[in-house]
Amino acid sequence: MSGVDQPDVLAAYDAVRSDKNETNWLLLSYAGAVGDKLVLSGTGTGGLAELTSKLDDGQAQYGYARIEYANDSESKRVKFILVVWIGEGTKVMRKARVSIESGAVKRVLSHHSIQVDARDRGDLDEKDIVARLRRAGGADYNGGRG
To answer: pTM of the prediction?
Structure first.
């Protein structure tokens, strides 16, 4: 897969992971209707809600986001998620290739706690994702309340 390891993608990935940078998401999109070339189509500081608003219903895309949440009144956790988006209007052949092509994306955007396969924006509800992150983290100081 070409494009996923380009300098601008790697710089955006490092920015999202950095505690010193406000960037908290990035979005990769296919450069054209055919082919496997990915391009960095956006970054931002508005969190998962902003990332979700940038998703295109007509294509498959890959997002990477920093999620911050409190476990209790004394601590804050930072986790990262990989979003594999397949919009409702994505062409059949593209949908079929995502399972193969997403492997290259995972190799570059490798540090994530969970992968969220999303077909609908409702799949990216931050409250539900934080609950999944808590379960994945092993330690739940919220008494199982998600």
So the answer is: 0.91
The pair phi, psi for residue 125, each rounded to 5°, is -70, 120
d(CA 82, CA 35): 22
Cβ-contact 68, 126 below 8 angstroms: no
Do 62 and 80 contact (CB within 8 A), yes or no?
no
CA proximity to 79, closest of 69, 89, 90: 69
**Which value, to the nearest 10 degrees, does the dihedral of the CA atoms of residues 34, 38, 39, 43 take?**
120
Instruction: Provide the token pair at 103.
Output: 């492997």
Q: Distance between CA 61 and CA 42 in Å, rounded?
A: 11
For 45, phi and psi rounded to 5 degrees?
Answer: -120, 5
What would the two tokens of residue 78 be? 């930072």
Q: Which residues pair with 60 in a beta bridge?
A: 86
Which pLDDT tens digit goes with each residue over 58-86? 999 999 999 999 877 778 899 999 999 99
Q: Name the residue with tokens 């992971």.
A: 17
